[in-house]
Amino acid sequence: MILEVAILDIGRGTCDDFEVAYREASPIIASMPGYISHELRRCVEKPNRYILLVKWQTLEAHTVGFRQSAEYQRWRTLLHHFYDPFPSVEHYDLPLVC
Prior knowledge:
This protein is α+β, with helices and mostly antiparallel strands. It has helices at residues 15-30, 59-66, 70-79; strands spanning 2-9, 35-42, 49-56, 89-92.
């Protein structure tokens, strides 16, 4: 399992519109092969910042299966214009057992 982590900074004054668009886009990512789950959380200290956490079966399910799909184009159309600046995305391995 791979955890995708994206910090999303949303343009000032557009958070309500972003949340509406996210609700519309959410089923898109959930329908993709290799998808496990996702959640979006709003930052308490910076209300225009969100964190998107997506669990994928494999890295390729995200980087190839989703990002190279027609569905991703719809996701992009709905959400990308809200980002300021464009987010960095990182992928994390399985949790470590300490």
